[in-house]
Design a protein that fits this description.
Blueprint lengths: L4 H11 L4 E4 L6 H8 L4 E4 L3 H15 L3 E5 L3 H5 L1 H10 L3 E7 L18 H5 L5 E4 L6 H13 L6 E6 H5 L21 H13 L3 E5 L1 H5 L3 H12 L3 E3 L22 H9 L2 E5 L18 E6 L12 E4 L2 H9 L10 H17 L4 H13 L6 E3 L3 H9 L7 E3 L9 H12 L3 E6 H7 L2 H7 L4 E7 L4 H11 L12 H7 L4 E3 L5 H8 L6 E6 L9
Parallel strand pairs: 1-2, 1-3, 3-4, 4-6, 5-6, 7-8, 7-9, 9-10, 10-11, 12-13, 12-14, 14-15, 15-17, 16-17
Helix pairs in contact: 1-2, 1-7, 3-5, 3-17, 9-13, 11-13, 15-22
Length: 533
């Protein structure tokens, strides 16, 4: 048969080095999906488009590649937007390829199935760019540009729409055998680097706050550690920044950002170097952080610089800025930094010891012991995850959470896509409320035999909202949930399920890492949060 626009898309993706694509087939996109059949791409079909987007996100985080998402027109495209908000907020590179109605119907009310007045407009709030291919000759360049922009600092989702007839019509372009890309990093200006280095040289109590931008920046963790050692500065990691510096490094002050001792350390620095973070609501311990010193704020996203606190703004990729600053600062003898970091960790442990949170601490220890050091873990918006934000040591693996936008349902579809992409077992942790957002993906996990362990902490409702409302109003409303027998439901999908207790959950989870295919572990337990102040 003649090559069509769908073939051009697949050829271009192949030229970009793409191996996996996520999504759900749809009527306007059939030409695109049929072209996959004639390619070497692996298609992972989810059951809900939002979960497809979470899957592309998780795949990108785990592999370091761009996650590629195929969406159908209208309802399919709109359903994915909530998950794309997470990728956009967190800076995850995703290339979205969405179908459109035929060109003759675009922008008109002709009654075309799935038609929106302006589909791309709906996507603009959660993507870096949108484009529409009006003929097949435009496809290679549009896709390559979107692929490049998705990775360019600050990374994030990009969106390309292709009308149905462009996908189906005979291609007006020869077979795509080469693709031109240009992934940009942002270098810092020399004048602000010099000023930042001078401020840090003059500091008596420098502290570094390392965000997710450090982790995502190629070479960022190494540059962070090198500068911290030169400055003898303790390093606090944000939730997204976990792993930027090893918790076993003497200068690591951990990631207990929801703790007043950490807030006090950050506030008391005479120079606070904040890198790859917006210093937003969670990182600032819910706006309680009030820095008393000078802030040097480094980020590739210009809009976050100085957004919450006055700062010397360094608009740059994290690794390039940290390396440039390190080249100008005067090395210090290691005297105080490690002691400050150790004292902070000890103070946090003392505060926790005075609270009734023994079960929660034991759960974190049990899961950490049960999970291989190199395993990647994915956490939904649930009390166990909020504990993990602070307590979990990622060791040699990576910690992934939905804290960027805070939507439910992230953990399981992201973890199963990561397992497919890496070939390594992953761990997903959800509450029973969040689990219902992604329960349909048990079918996807079974279909693709993904090596993923899904821990569902079942407390009968939206546990964290129950806690917030009870504390604020004396009682909770609309937080209690009817839910299925998760073990029976999982088994009906052909997925083995185990019910655990707080006493044996570590052993149960550990055994899943010696098996193949998806496994569900249900932990009936009501957890509570630690007091942060």
């Amino acid at each position: 048969m003649d090559r069509n626009g769908g073939d051009v898309v697949v050829e271009t993706l192949t030229g970009l080095g793409v191996s996996h694509v996520f999504g759900i087939p749809g009527q306007n996109a059939l030409g695109l999906f049929d072209a996959i059949r004639r390619s070497g791409l692996t298609f992972v079909s989810s059951r809900v488009e939002n979960n497809s987007a979470f899957g592309a996100d998780g795949y990108a985080r785990a592999t370091g590649d761009v996650g590629v998402l195929f969406l159908s027109t209208g309802p399919g495209a709109l359903t994915a937007l909530g998950a794309l908000q997470e990728a956009y907020a967190t800076g995850v590179p995703v290339l979205v390829i969405a179908s459109q109605v035929p060109r003759a119907a675009m922008g008109l009310r002709r009654g075309a199935l799935h038609q929106l007045d302006d589909q791309a407009r709906s996507a603009r709030n959660v993507t870096k760019s949108t484009a529409v291919a009006m003929n097949s000759a435009q496809l290679p360049s549009l896709l390559a540009d979107a692929w490049s922009l998705a990775q360019s600092a600050p990374a994030g989702p990009t969106w390309v729409e292709i009308p149905q007839d462009v996908l189906l019509d005979t291609a007006a372009v020869p077979p795509v055998t080469s693709v031109v890309t240009s992934v940009a990093t942002r270098a810092p200006r020399e004048d602000v680097v010099a000023e930042a280095a001078a401020l840090l040289d003059a500091a008596h109590r420098p502290v570094i706050l390392a965000g997710g931008g450090v982790r995502r920046s190629p070479g960022g963790p190494q540059a962070l550690v090198a500068l911290a050692e030169l400055l003898d500065a303790p390093v606090v990691s944000t939730v997204g920044g976990k792993g930027a510096i090893g918790f076993d490094h003497p200068l690591s002050a951990g990631s207990w950002i929801e703790d007043r001792h950490t807030t006090d350390l950050l506030a008391g620095a005479d120079v606070l170097l904040a890198v790859g973070t917006a210093m937003g609501e969670v990182t600032s311990n819910y706006w309680s952080l009030q820095p008393s010193g000078t802030i040097v704020h480094v980020d590739a996203e210009a809009r976050v610089l100085g957004a919450n606190h006055p700062a010397l703004a360094v608009h740059a990729d994290a690794a390039r800025a940290l390396t440039a600053i390190a080249g100008l600062v005067t090395p210090r003898r290691a005297t105080a930094g490690a002691g400050i970091a150790a004292a902070l960790r000890a103070a946090v442990e003392d505060r926790l010891a005075s609270q009734d949170v023994g079960d929660e601490l034991a759960l974190m220890r049990a899961l950490r012991s049960a999970t291989p050091a190199a395993a990647q873990t994915f956490w939904d918006m649930t009390i166990a995850a909020y504990w993990a934000w602070s307590a979990w040591d990622p060791r040699d693996g990576q910690f992934h959470s939905a804290q960027g936008a805070g939507g439910l349902g992230f953990a399981f579809p992201a973890a199963l896509a990561a397992a497919i992409g890496t070939g390594q077992r992953t761990l997903a942790v959800s509450g029973d409320g969040g689990a219902m957002y992604s329960i349909a993906e048990l079918a996807t996990a079974r279909q693709h035999d993904a090596d993923v362990t899904w821990l569902i902490v079942d407390d009968g409702g939206y546990g964290i909202l129950r806690e917030y409302m009870t504390e604020e109003f004396g009682q909770a409303t609309a937080t209690e949930l009817a839910r299925p027998d998760f073990a029976a439901l999982s088994t009906s999908f052909g997925v083995p399920a185990h019910t655990a207790t707080l006493a044996d959950v570590g052993d149960v989870v550990a055994r899943t890492f010696d098996t193949r295919g998806p496994v569900v572990v249900i932990l009936p337990a009501t957890l509570r949060m630690f007091a942060a102040t």
